[in-house]
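Incident review: delayed structure delivery

Summary: a single-chain prediction request sat in the queue longer than the usual turnaround. Root cause was a stuck worker, restarted by the on-call engineer. No data loss occurred. The affected request and its eventual output are reproduced below so the record is complete for anyone auditing the incident later.

Affected input:
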Amino acid sequence: MPKKPKFIAVIGGSRCSPKEAELAEAVGREIARKGAVLVCGGMGGIMEATCRGAHTEGGMTIGILPGESRHMANPYVQIPIVTGIGYARNVIVVKSAQAVIAIGGNYGTLSEISHALQSNIPVIGLNTWALSREGQTDSSILLAQNPAEAVDKALNLATSQASSQVEE
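Output delivered after worker restart:
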């Protein structure tokens, strides 16, 4: 039986700083080099930068789009999935992945982090949100210092998660 690729979601803002875009592009390149499939929201900012990086390395990119047209996708999305459900598509983005890498981001990214954590999908953070509860740091988001570390953590955790679940 052929080995199935791992699916890694990259989440972040539709607008981002040049530094965040640089990190996202490097994450996309690393995901493609490791043979994983990139899943994202398919739009601009972090999503476009990550897809561009994956594209340069010949990787597979899937964009889960909020609107009604596949033409909304950034030019590096190979498989646009049209949902017509707006921000509710955030659940689909994270549920389609075995691990999530969050880069920067605003409240939409925070909602995706929440959905992933509620579903026991590992979240790796690269210059993103930090969580606390009752004044205590919540370490649910696993921090990475650079793109290569973020992707390695995501792939290792995706492996652990996949081996502990029964495939349907």
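Verification: The chain is about 40% helix and 20% strand.
Action items: add queue-age alerting; document worker restart procedure.
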